[in-house]
Structure formats: structure tokens, C-alpha cells
Amino acid sequence: MDNNYSSKESMQETTPYQKFTAIGKVIDDDVFQFDMGNDFIPFRRNIDFISCTETSIDPLILHLTFIKNKKRWGYPFRFGHLEISEKDFKLISEKMIEV
User: Fold this and answer.
1) For 73-97, how does the pLDDT look when each residue is reduced to its tens digit (9 = 90+)?
2) 72 burial level (CB within 10 Å; 0-12, 13-18, 19+)
């Protein structure tokens, strides 16, 4: 499974967004590059996304174990994909799929 975190609402935006915006399952082993324009060509995976609600990271920061420094919590997100524990994934996904 995969969570998607968005620091901004769009690449051109400067206002912080800071939400988990998507959740899904990686469906194969393919890794490919996708041209986003302006010489930005990030790597991507094929994901089967599920319906969810965007969720602010703010109330989760103190509970997420992959965020070691709670004051500089954005650091782990600087590198794109990161592996998180099943516990952290469940916490995030339960908030995103709440009814």
C-alpha cells in the first residue's frame, strides 16, 4: 500500500498544503519516469488508488514514528518515497478512510 503526501496543492503553489492526499496499492514492480514539464521528470509507480479524504498531517505528527524530530517533521518527505511502519500506515489510512 502507498500513501501520498502533498506539501503544496500544485507545483506552482507557494502556500503550504501539508496533507496526505491519496492512498492506494502498488500493483506491479514497474518503475518509470513521467515528464511533469520544466525539466522535472520524477520516477513513478503504478498505483491502484482508492477513494479517500485528504487528511492534514498536523494532528498526526506526534503519533507517527517515522517522524523522529517533531519540530522539523517535514525532513523525511524531502526525498520522495519513504518506507513507513505498518502502524504508521494504519494510523494515516484510518484517518483518510474514516466514514
Assistant:
1) 988 888 777 889 999 999 999 999 9
2) exposed
**Scanning the structure block, which residue is given the C-alpha cell 503544496?**
8
**Cβ contact 42:34 at 8 Å:** yes
Question: Which grid cell is 72?
Answer: 522539523
pLDDT single digits (tens) 31-54: 999 998 889 898 889 999 999 999
- At the topology level, CATH places domain 2-96 in ph1033 like fold (3.10.590)
Q: Measure the CA–CA gap between 95 and 98, rounded to whole angstroms.
A: 5
**How does DSSP classify residue 52?**
-
pTM of the model: 0.73
Sorted by where each begins, the domain ranges of the chain are 2-96
